[in-house]
C-alpha cells in the first residue's frame, strides 16, 4: 500500500513539473498574442511616420535654400531701387518726390519683413562660433525654441551670479586659501566664456547685442583668465581682499539687476516696445529709464570700484618687489572696462535727455499681429477671398496705403511726443 502511494505521488509530481508549465505557456501565449499584434501595428505606424518625417526634413531643407536665394535676390533689387530713388530725388518735382517718399517707406517696411524672414532661416555662424563649435547650424527653427534658449540664458546668468556672490563672500570673510581662489577664478573664466558663446548664438537668432556690450564679456574673460594664472605672491596677496569685495559687490548688483531687467523686458515686449529676443545686460540701456533708473547709482559705484582697482594695481606694479606681468595687465583691463562702461552709460543718458522729438517707426506690434504672410489657402479656409477688400491677404490700393502710412506716422508722432514729454 505504501509503495502504491509513493508511485502515485511520483506520477503526480511528474505531471505537475512537466505538463503544467506547458499549459501555463499556452495560456500566456494566448494573452500575449493581442499585445504582439498591437506592437507590430505600432511598429508599422512608426516606420510610416519616420519615412514621412525624413521626406519633410528634406523638403524643408530645399525650401530653406530656396528662401535664402530669394532673400538675396530681394536685397539686391532693394539696394538697386534705393540707389535709383536717391538719384531721382535730385531732379524730382513735388508729385514725383511724394511718390519716391512713399516708395522709400515701402522699401523700409519690406526691409523689416526681410529681417523677420531671415530670423527663421539657417544662418552661418560667425568666426568665433566656427572656431569653437565648427560649421554648425545654430539657428532655431521656431520662435518657441528661441524664447526657451533666451530664457535659459537669463536663468543661467542669475544663478551663476548668485553662486559667484556667495563664493566671493566666503572667500572674503571665511576662507583664505589660494586653491579656493583658483576655483573661484576658474568659475569666472568658465562663466564669461559660456556667456560669449551663448550670446553669439542669440545674436544669430535675432538678439540685438551691439556696441560696447558686444565685446564686454570677451574683455572680462581675458581679465578672469589672467587672474587665474597670477602666481601666489606678495602682489597677489595685497590685491586679493580688494578683488573679493569688488566681486561680491558686482555680482550682487548684477543679480538684482538681472531680476529686475527680466520683468521689465517682459512688460516692454508685451507692449511691443522691445524686440522679443532682447536680453539683459551688465550695464544700462535706454529702455531701462522707465523702471530701472534706481540701478544707476549702484552701477556708477561699481565703475568707480573698477577705476580704483586699476589705480591700486598700477601702484603695486611700480613696487620693487613686484615682478609679475599680470599686475599691470589686469590694471589696464580694469581701466578699459571702467572707461567703456562709464562712456557707454553717459552716452545713453545724454541720448535720452537731449534727444530731439523724432518719428520712430515701430513695426514690432504690426509684425507680431501681421497678416502679410496669409496664403490663399489660409484665406479660403477662413471663408475670405484673397482679393476681397476686407481680406488681410489683399494688397491695399495706392490711396489707401498712403493714407494708412500717414495715419501711422501721425499716431507715432503723437506717441513719441507724449513719451518724450
TrEMBL record:
Topology with respect to the bilayer: Multi-pass membrane protein
Keyword Membrane: yes
Chief localization: membrane
One GO CC term on file: membrane
Region (Disordered): 375-421
Compositional bias per record (Polar residues), positions renumbered to this chain: 375-385, 399-421
Entry's transmembrane regions: 156-176, 182-201, 213-231, 287-305, 325-349
Subcellular location field: Membrane
Keyword line: Membrane, Transmembrane, Transmembrane helix
Entry similarity comment: Belongs to the TMEM120 family.
UniProt-recorded name of the protein: Transmembrane protein 120B
Organism: Calicophoron daubneyi (Rumen fluke)
Amino acid at each position: 500500500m505504501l509503495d502504491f502511494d509513493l508511485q502515485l505521488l511520483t506520477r503526480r509530481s511528474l505531471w505537475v513539473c512537466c505538463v503544467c508549465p506547458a499549459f501555463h505557456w499556452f495560456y500566456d501565449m494566448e494573452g500575449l498574442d493581442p499585445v504582439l499584434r498591437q506592437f507590430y501595428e505600432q511598429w508599422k505606424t512608426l516606420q510610416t511616420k519616420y519615412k514621412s518625417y525624413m521626406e519633410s526634413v528634406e523638403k524643408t531643407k530645399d525650401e530653406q535654400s530656396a528662401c535664402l536665394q530669394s532673400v538675396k535676390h530681394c536685397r539686391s533689387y532693394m539696394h538697386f531701387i534705393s540707389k535709383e530713388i536717391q538719384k531721382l530725388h535730385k531732379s524730382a518735382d513735388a508729385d514725383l518726390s511724394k511718390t519716391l517718399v512713399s516708395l522709400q517707406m515701402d522699401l523700409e517696411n519690406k526691409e523689416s519683413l526681410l529681417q523677420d524672414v531671415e530670423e527663421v532661416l539657417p544662418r552661418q555662424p560667425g568666426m568665433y562660433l566656427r572656431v569653437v563649435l565648427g560649421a554648425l547650424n545654430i539657428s532655431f527653427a521656431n520662435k518657441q525654441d528661441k524664447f526657451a534658449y533666451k530664457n535659459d540664458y537669463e536663468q543661467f546668468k542669475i544663478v551663476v551670479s548668485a553662486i559667484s556672490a556667495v563664493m566671493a563672500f566666503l572667500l572674503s570673510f571665511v576662507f583664505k586659501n589660494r586653491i579656493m581662489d583658483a576655483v573661484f577664478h576658474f568659475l569666472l573664466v568658465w562663466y564669461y566664456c559660456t556667456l560669449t558663446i551663448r550670446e553669439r548664438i542669440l545674436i544669430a537668432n535675432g538678439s540685438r547685442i551691439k556696441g560696447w556690450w558686444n565685446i564686454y564679456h570677451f574683455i572680462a574673460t581675458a581679465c578672469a583668465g589672467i587672474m587665474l594664472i597670477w602666481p601666489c605672491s606678495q602682489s597677489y596677496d595685497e590685491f586679493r581682499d580688494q578683488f573679493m569685495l569688488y566681486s561680491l559687490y558686482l555680482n550682487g548688483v548684477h543679480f538684482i539687476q538681472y531680476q529686475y531687467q527680466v520683468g521689465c523686458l517682459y512688460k516692454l515686449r508685451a507692449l511691443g516696445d522691445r524686440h522679443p529676443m532682447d536680453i539683459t545686460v551688465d550695464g544700462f540701456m535706454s529702455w531701462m529709464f522707465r523702471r530701472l533708473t534706481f540701478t544707476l547709482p549702484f552701477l556708477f559705484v561699481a565703475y568707480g570700484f573698477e577705476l580704483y582697482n586699476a589705480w591700486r594695481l598700477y601702484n603695486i606694479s611700480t613696487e620693487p618687489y613686484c615682478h609679475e606681468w599680470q599686475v599691470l595687465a589686469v590694471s589696464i583691463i580694469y581701466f578699459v572696462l571702467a572707461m567703456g562702461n562709464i562712456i557707454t552709460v553717459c552716452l545713453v543718458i545724454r541720448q535720452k535727455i537731449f534727444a530731439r522729438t523724432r518719428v520712430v517707426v515701430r513695426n514690432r506690434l504690426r509684425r507680431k499681429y501681421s497678416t502679410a504672410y496669409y496664403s490663399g489657402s489660409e484665406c479660403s479656409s477662413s471663408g475670405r477671398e484673397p482679393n476681397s477688400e476686407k481680406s488681410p491677404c489683399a494688397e491695399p490700393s495706392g490711396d489707401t496705403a498712403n493714407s494708412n502710412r500717414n495715419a501711422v506716422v501721425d499716431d507715432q508722432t503723437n506717441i513719441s511726443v507724449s513719451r518724450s514729454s
